[in-house]
Amino acid sequence: DEFIAMVSHELRTPLNAMLGWVEILKGNKGDEGVYKRALEAIDRSAKAQNRLVNDLLDISRMESGNLLLENQPVNLASVIERVIETAFPDAEKRSILLETQLDRSVRWVLGDPNRLQQVVNNLVQNALKFTPDGGRVSVTLAYEDSRARIGVADTGKGIAADFLPFVFDRYRQALVSGGTKIGLGLGLNIAREIIALHGGSIAANSEGEGRGATFSIVLPLREETAAKA
User: pLDDT digit string (tens) for 183-207?
Assistant: First the structure.
């Protein structure tokens, strides 16, 4: 019952925002500024609701063992760059410095590019969500022997020491100011499952509340795929 109530609330929030702006548009008398704000708000709310529905579907697939990968040689630098392109407008709007340091060597992992992009996007969006305006989010890619390492670090609210061991657990929700819970606590759990299916690992680290957080992904390299590139 608690979970159903939680899901209903999360679905209703963006829906109410869209309906509210639709009503405003109905009464709009040609004000281009209102029209632009309405489109941006509706687009943002629709994307938030779409992410939530996709997370719920992924949880269902995980429960039934049907979260499958469409594996192929993947260039991780390209995956990260696509995520950055998507996240850049929001970061710029909030004066958050979104910086990258990517090793663009021709190295490959064997994996599902869409699922890997989903994981990196989740980490970057979380970093932006919990970083105040004017902060910094850094994304790195480095290669160590037979492994690739992706890092996403921010200067945001950080992770409390007592919550850190449970950050990847399903339905564990982060708190925002005032003690309000945000999200359903599904994204990081799904990310851990996807990375595990790729034979890798994901970890979180934070020096405490108000001191930012760093998430690290380690994936095995497939050297034979680099030879075919």
Answer: 557 889 999 999 999 999 999 999 9
Q: Give yes or no for a contact between 175 and 182, defined as CB atoms under 8 angstroms apart.
A: yes
pTM for this structure? 0.80
